[in-house]
Amino acid sequence: MITTEVTVNELAALMKKAAGITVDPQELKQSAESPFDSFGLDSLGLLGIVGELENRYGLSLPPDSERCKSPREFLDLVNSTLKAGA
Q1: Are 48 and 37 in contact (CB under 8 A)?
Q2: How remote is the C-alpha of 46 from its chain's centroid?
Q3: Does residue 5 sit in helix, strand or coil?
Q4: What is the pLDDT of residues 58-73, one digit of tens each?
Q5: 3-class DSSP state for residue 75?
Q6: What is the structure's pLDDT at 2?
Q7: Is 79 helix (H, G, I), strand (E, B) or coil?
Q8: What whole-number distance in Å separates Cα of residue 22 and Cα of residue 40?
């Protein structure tokens, strides 16, 4: 069973890797309800993060993943999918 969940720190690292956007994990955590575009992440960048996670965990994320508006919404959806797919 996969007990892994994507953390705020991992999301910040993925934002850097997939979209070239550097975000302080603490700032991301404190502003988790803020829209992704306030961090400079657009839908294409989010799509890159979704692809990274799908490759990492070997499962497809829901189509809604790339439409999430905030880090909190995204992490909740991704982590519930990982738990369900485990």
Answers
A1: no
A2: 7
A3: coil
A4: 989 998 899 999 999 9
A5: helix
A6: 47
A7: helix
A8: 9
